[in-house]
Design goal:
CATH superfamily of the largest domain: Spore Coat Polysaccharide Biosynthesis Protein SpsA, Chain A
CATH topology of the largest domain: Spore Coat Polysaccharide Biosynthesis Protein SpsA, Chain A
Strand content: 25-35%
Radius of gyration: 22 Å
Number of domains: 2
CATH architecture of the largest domain: Alpha-Beta Complex
Structural class: alpha/beta
Amino acid sequence: MKALILIGGMGTRLRPLTCSTPKPLLPIVNRPFLDYQLKLLKIYGIKDVILCVAYMSHEFEKHFGTGKKWGMNIKYVHEKYPLGTGGAVKNAEKYIDSTTVILNGDILTDINIKAMFKFHRAKNSKLTIALTRVKDPTVFGLIETDKDGRIERFLEKPSWDEVTCNTVNTGVYIFEPEILKSIPPGINYSVERGLFPNLLREGCGIYGYTFKGYWMDIGTIDKYLQANFDMMSSNIDFQLPGKMIQDNLWVGKRLKWGKNIELTGRLVCGDGTHISDSVQIQGNVCVGNNVIIGKGCSISNSVILDNTRIGEGVRADGVIVGRDCHIEANSIISCKTTLGNGSIIKRYSKL
């Protein structure tokens, strides 16, 4: 089985982080997000991967190359203009000559692809959509299935009195190649709003595979932050980077650790990190490579990306700090703040 990953979007909901980095390369606990998707595929023996790229496509080729470093064979299919999910799949049609698992490029999951494929084969399905159950079905498009998993209806963001189930599309699919004949070429086209309802109307047997594992769409600031925290809390089973030196601390190489540091939560540090004296760390905190945190700082429930300097006495709670930032002394950065790469916050600022 092959895999195709849809990573052509501009990630507008994650700005300013995506102004200079494509969404799938944003780090989740100090690793590019797409690394986790590739690792998941490799767990299930999938080594041939097609990346559908558009926005900042050169960054993917620079990072992943041919895939040799990952023990994979990676090919790139470029979009000259936005094609949507269906158009992007159609654009890669020449490479889809066998059963293919397709993933949206902003889905963090530990779905058992082997089990999904077994279900797909058992149903003799041409198209299988992975489903998960959610607490609030009104913010998603629902998918109703019968007792055998055959899809009966798509219901887009229903009101509570319209809710009949709580299973939603996760952005993970298994396609047989012949399905692509139903996608029009060369136009912006959606599999969710176009292909899937059309196949249902035509009586094509399409199925929903419901799984109980972890699933998160990282496409917003809140969800991106939560994905980092979930990974640190072991809610999803991927090994954290660095060396675990105690049950709440993972460190990279060349760590500089000051005196009287108070760690009451979980901390992951990248390579070359310097945490000065009397720093307080609470909740989940992820610190990238070559980050300096000054004396007397208080950091809680935050993600700080590479090469950032934080001055003495800074307080940060529930924030995301981009790469190459400089936060000067005694500044206060409050919850929900996101700083783009290269930001400079002058001393005593309050955000």
